[in-house]
Amino acid sequence: MSTTSRGDQIDGVLHAVEAYFHTMHHGDGAGLRRICHPGLQLIGWFEGELIQQSLDDWITEVDSVNPAAVGEPFDMGLLSLELWGEQFATARVCNLVAGIRYEDVLTFAEQDEQWLIVSKTFTETGRVHFPDRQ
User: Which of 52, 69, 80, 115 could form a disulfide with 16 if both were Cys (CB 3.0 to 4.6 A apart)?
Assistant: First the structure.
């Protein structure tokens, strides 16, 4: 039985969600690796196709895009958060990366007092055109 309070659990997951937003907005693959479980699986819909990626494949993709560096506004938010017992949580988030809007469901597990993303399921929900970019 954990001695961590419910409030501390929520704070821990929220900290991990904020770190996720930061890594995605800044194209920070190394930072993403720090907040993900090595066995993470990613699955989702992109451009009409179901894709599946390992953590390494996802990090390569994240490293190739830096929305902040090209002036894309930070547009990410938490839609819902649910704790499951003492070691698991899900966060439903929305985010804008490289002009594409997504909704993600991130599943977290607490390991060694750190909340890690163990899976990501996502869908593309729209696109944003920035007139000052080609």
Answer: 115
User: Mind listing the pLDDT tens digit for each residue in 92-117?
Assistant: 999 999 999 999 999 999 999 899 99
CA dihedral (45, 33, 36, 99) in degrees, to 10, reads -30
Sheet holding 76-84, edge to edge: 49-54, 36-46, 114-127, 100-111, 88-97, 76-84
Which residue reads 């993470």 in tokens?
A: 40
Which CATH number fits the domain 6-127, given the four candidates 3.10.450.50, 3.40.50.2000, 3.30.450.40, 3.40.640.10?
A: 3.10.450.50
- The encoded tokens of residue 72 equal 């894309």
CA 133 to mean position of chain CA atoms: 25
Q: Say if residue 53 is exposed, middle or buried (CB neighbours under 10 Å; 0-12, 13-18, 19+).
A: middle
